[in-house]
Amino acid sequence: MSTSPVAKFTPNPKMEYRRLGRSGLKVSVLSFGSWVTFDTQLNDDMARDCMANAWDAGCNFFDNAEAYAGGESEAIMGRVIKDLGWRRQDYVLSTKIFWGIEGGVPNMGNTLNRKYVHHAIEGCLDRLQVDFVDLLFCHRADPNTPIEETVWAMSDLIDQGKVLYWGTSEWTADEIRAAWDIADRHHLHKPVMEQPQYNMLERKRVEVEYKRLYEDIGLGTTIWSPLASGVLTGKYLDGVPEDSRAALPGYSWLAERLTAEKAQSTVKKLMPIADGLGCTLAQMALAWCTKNPNVSTVITGASKASQVVENFKALDVIELLTPEVMGQIKTALRS
């Protein structure tokens, strides 16, 4: 594996770099994440090719989580970034904590108490081989720890220089607002962003539940599963391919979701619209997500480098989504 450093990051003129909520941080509107694929489908060399292709397309934001592959996903990403020689100031790196990787050890999983947060960030930084992460997400809400304790712990990490911004993932609007209000009351660092699922088939939380939060607290969103775990590629119309993530051991739940009749019916209605635009359904689905002004970045994933190239061609599709086309898509999603 080559260890020669790459050139300084060059922004892609086709890529939009959006502010993360009301913060001053800018992230590429299409980004790259490692959920499921790193370690289970991608080794270091394959991950390197995927990340390099995303980088070349103008992606500056890379997402991970402590729980992905039991920490190995972070380790792979850390090794790849070091091998590629990227300058730390050129990329935005995130991870998420909550589930833990200690196998049921008290205070080391399924919690956001101060002790866990303290230990978890140290492990994340060690595996990613960095001194700090730009974004740290609370991967789920913790009903057994007072939100105030979690807010103080996350704010402390920012004061310590281990994290630049903190946020949540799959929290309810009420939980996010409670955390924000606590931080505001005690003059602590407030949650800046949420990482929710959002795609053509899953819209309610981002479009309805969080609606007030965008205006009231300036919430940013780094959305995951923009292709509905692959449903919106259209490749599951004839069942689950053997080389797909849904065929992996332990992912039978995903296979059931991918082949659900209602989802497949919607896909069949959307495909002619994509064909009319001269793009793939996946590219149209990714571009559609970016049309929501409350989406800061769309996290893409891939199990091979060629998929990264195809996904980032969605940048060429964004301008094709005129109000007329968006209306056609809206009709397809309603029917």
Automatic annotation (TrEMBL):
SUPFAM superfamilies: NAD(P)-linked oxidoreductase. Keywords: NADP, Oxidoreductase. InterPro entries: K_chnl_volt-dep_bsu_KCNAB-rel, NAD(P)_OxRdtase_dom_sf, NADP_OxRdtase_dom. Residues 30-332 form the NADP-dependent oxidoreductase domain. GO terms for molecular function: oxidoreductase activity. Belongs to the shaker potassium channel beta subunit family. PANTHER family: HYPERKINETIC, ISOFORM M. This is Unannotated protein.
